């Protein structure tokens, strides 16, 4: 990797830039302060637009689901904007893909290759930069290994200077939405099993690669950190751009019509007021004959630009997984509109309830999507999912406007809804059918004109492990505060030593969640016990007692367990083994439940030393019929073998030179 010298001089704690880099930074610097940047944003929006209405993304931005404006300050996020150029003009920002606590992530065009990439622009504070430098080291190690790895690829990295400081920017291949979006898409009822198997197999392959080939522990495996691939990125970007273009031109048309109808009303009122003798018919004819092409009359219906730097996240759609992407595309192209895009055992993700019945596991459609220990209420996530589908009224939200402008409501709504749906899972099938009637020809010809190749679909879901921002080396752990609560392993909860096998625990929690839509463990605190107490109790109820190894080798065991190995703060436990949970709560066929629990249970071995390794589990019979991956095995690992022969499996390996 490049030698980022920014924070090497720890005695001064001041950024020390290499001279060459500083020179590059000076050239790259586009904005002096946030205010200037905001002003520039408009400039660039206009530059990249057919018209100047492209701030809609921003104005419709739901800021509750985006990064906090408060974090746009020195040391915080960089106020990126569409059209902004990076690395001496090599990368131009196109749209926002997502954000995290360390960074915002943007789709950008790489002018050198002509392809699109994802720019992860890290907050500028020292702690984030240092973490980013570590992340780049880890990613560089991954890149040095050959082959398809199921781990996100780093393409480039550099420093960008902005009003809030110097930001490390990582350039990645472009991926689609994360698995949480997919779980929500299925309304927390579980994914069809063929998809679960594809994801599980690829996730295990990715972890095996990270662990055995790279010496890296991810430490934060969870649905949000596994992203779906989107296949032909350039084709998808083109389709999305075409839809955006269509949406903008429809808006423009709408504005013109509104302007005309207001003009008509004003004229009529004026005429009526000042000169009752004027012939109303001729006045109306004048208005009717006014050409609607050309620049819109900007005096009316122009929403003021908002002075915000928060932009709506618009992840790109994954063809197999988001709102009927292929179906929509087929509609757009008049290409077999009646044919189902996924003519495979996987079924169609868009019709979640339908597809779940096509899987060999019969998941109950019970609407209580809580963790199985907490039947009482909906978790925060589950409540969020109730917003996935729009109220049907939203399709007709601009009815009134349409009537006054005289435009067909479908014509106005279709592109907008369709474009939105591509990134936010918002369209139901019936809406798509409605839409296709009105917009096929125009989009279709646009697509043809632009020469978009749309024949490149298969029906395998491809995933990649992302966000190595918290990852570490098997022989250099950066912190013991690892893993997101629900996916946290028992050894980490107890403050014992941990290693690669902590990732396997999280992977099992994730796979259970894919199958059922529920967290495997969702601890909460009570009046007499803590979240940790509850978490440990849930683990015992599902998997049995904690091994003495853990009780004897962990910092906090005595806070939770008494000398007899019993929980101090929770007396009554209700044992409910995994297989029974699957059969009784989730109505999984008993045979399938046995296979699933045979597969998951070795990953959920409480003793981290005895946990099964990722490579061996790829060979599990439950994954044998994984669609498109039937022959994929890891020949040098044994099924159900533990990973204790892998250096760093359950504890940090010391005595090595630091990375
Ligand atoms: N290569 C990519 N292609 C498309 N979208 C991406 C890509 N990388 C990240 N994203 C989007 O950006 C979001 C934030 O990325 P990431 O999780 O790497 O950032 P972070 O700041 O490290 O977040 P966290 O708070 O989870 O540590 C992701 O959830 C995803 O939606």
TrEMBL record:
ATP binds at residue 120. InterPro entries: Kinase-like_dom_sf, Prot_kinase_dom, Protein_kinase_ATP_BS, Ser/Thr_kinase_AS, SRPK. This is non-specific serine/threonine protein kinase. It comes from Tetrapisispora phaffii (strain ATCC 24235 / CBS 4417 / NBRC 1672 / NRRL Y-8282 / UCD 70-5). The keyword Oxidoreductase does not apply. Keywords: ATP-binding, Kinase, Nucleotide-binding, Serine/threonine-protein kinase, Transferase. PANTHER family: PROTEIN KINASE DOMAIN-CONTAINING PROTEIN-RELATED. Residues 34-75 are annotated as: Disordered. It is an enzyme of class 2 (transferase). Transmembrane segments: none annotated. Residues 45-60 have a biased composition (Acidic residues). Residues 61-73 have a biased composition (Basic and acidic residues). Residues 91-623 form the Protein kinase domain. The keyword Kinase applies. GO terms for cellular component: cytoplasmic stress granule; nucleus. GO terms for molecular function: ATP binding; protein serine/threonine kinase activity. Gene3D superfamilies: Phosphorylase Kinase, domain 1, Transferase(Phosphotransferase) domain 1. One of its GO terms (biological process) is mRNA splice site recognition. It catalyses: L-threonyl-[protein] + ATP = O-phospho-L-threonyl-[protein] + ADP + H(+); L-seryl-[protein] + ATP = O-phospho-L-seryl-[protein] + ADP + H(+). Its EC number is 2.7.11.1.
């Amino acid at each position: 990797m490049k030698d980022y010298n920014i924070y090497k001089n720890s005695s001064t704690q001041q950024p020390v830039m290499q001279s060459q880099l500083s020179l590059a930074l000076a050239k790259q610097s586009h904005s002096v302060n946030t205010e200037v940047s905001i002003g520039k944003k408009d400039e660039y929006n206009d530059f990249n637009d057919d018209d100047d209405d492209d701030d809609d993304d921003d104005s419709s931005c739901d800021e509750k689901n985006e990064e906090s404006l408060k974090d746009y300050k020195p040391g915080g996020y960089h106020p990126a904007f569409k059209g902004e150029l990076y690395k001496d003009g090599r990368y131009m920002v196109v749209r926002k893909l997502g954000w995290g606590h360390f960074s915002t992530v943007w789709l950008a065009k790489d002018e050198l290759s002509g392809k699109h990439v994802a720019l992860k622009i890290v907050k500028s504070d020292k702690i984030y930069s240092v973490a980013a430098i570590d992340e780049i080291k880890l990613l560089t190690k991954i890149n040095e290994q050959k082959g398809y790895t199921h781990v996100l690829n780093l393409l480039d990295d550099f420093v960008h200077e902005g009003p809030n400081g110097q930001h490390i920017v990582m350039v990645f291949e472009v991926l689609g939405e994360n698995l949480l979006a997919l779980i929500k898409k299925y309304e927390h009822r579980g994914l069809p099993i063929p998809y679960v198997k594809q994801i599980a197999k690829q996730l295990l392959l990715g972890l095996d690669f990270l662990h055995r080939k790279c010496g890296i522990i991810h430490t934060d495996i969870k649905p949000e950190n596994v992203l779906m691939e989107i296949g032909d990125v350039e084709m998808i970007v083109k389709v999305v751009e075409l839809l955006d273009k269509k949406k903008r031109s429809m808006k423009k048309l709408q504005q013109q019509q509104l302007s005309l109808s207001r003009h008509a009303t004003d004229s009529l009122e004026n005429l009526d007021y000042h000169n009752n003798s004027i012939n109303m018919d001729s006045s109306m004819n004048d208005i009717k004959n006014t050409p609607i092409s050309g620049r819109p009359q900007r005096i009316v219906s122009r929403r003021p630009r908002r002075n915000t730097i928060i932009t709506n996240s618009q992840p790109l759609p994954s063809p197999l997984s988001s709102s009927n992407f292929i179906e929509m595309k087929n509609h757009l192209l008049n290409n077999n509109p009646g044919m189902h895009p996924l003519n495979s055992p996987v079924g169609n993700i868009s019709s979640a309830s339908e597809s779940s019945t096509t899987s060999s596991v019969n998941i109950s459609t019970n609407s209580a999507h809580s963790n199985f220990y907490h039947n009482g209420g909906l978790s925060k996530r589950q409540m969020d999912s109730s917003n996935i589908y729009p109220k049907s009224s939203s399709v007709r939200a601009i009815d009134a406007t349409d009537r006054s402008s005289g435009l067909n409501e479908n014509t106005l709504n279709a592109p907008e809804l369709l474009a939105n749906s591509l990134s936010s899972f918002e369209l139901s099938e019936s809406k798509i059918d409605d839409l296709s009637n009105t917009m096929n020809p125009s989009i279709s010809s646009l697509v043809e004109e632009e020469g978009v190749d749309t024949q490149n679909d298969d029906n395998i879901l491809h995933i990649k492990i992302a966000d190595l921002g918290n990852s570490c080396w098997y022989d250099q752990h950066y912190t013991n505060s690892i893993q997101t609560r629900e996916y946290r392993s028992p050894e980490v909860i107890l403050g014992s030593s941990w290693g690669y096998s902590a990732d396997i625990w999280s992977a099992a929690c994730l796979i259970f969640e894919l199958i059922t839509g529920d967290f495997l463990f969702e601890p909460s605190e009570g009046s007499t016990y803590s979240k940790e107490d509850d978490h440990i109790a849930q683990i015992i109820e599902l998997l049995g007692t904690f091994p003495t190894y853990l009780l004897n080798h962990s910092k906090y065991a005595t806070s939770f367990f008494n000398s007899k190995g019993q929980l101090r703060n929770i007396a009554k436990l209700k044992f409910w083994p995994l297989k029974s949970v699957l059969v009784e709560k989730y109505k999984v066929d008993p045979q399938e439940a046995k296979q699933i629990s045979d597969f998951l249970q070795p990953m959920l071995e409480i003793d981290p030393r005895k946990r099964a390794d990722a490579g061996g589990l790829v060979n599990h019979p439950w994954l044998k019929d994984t669609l498109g991956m039937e022959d994929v095995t890891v020949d040098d690992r044994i099924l159900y073998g533990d990973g204790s022969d892998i250096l760093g499996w359950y504890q940090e390996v010391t005595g090595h030179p630091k990375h």
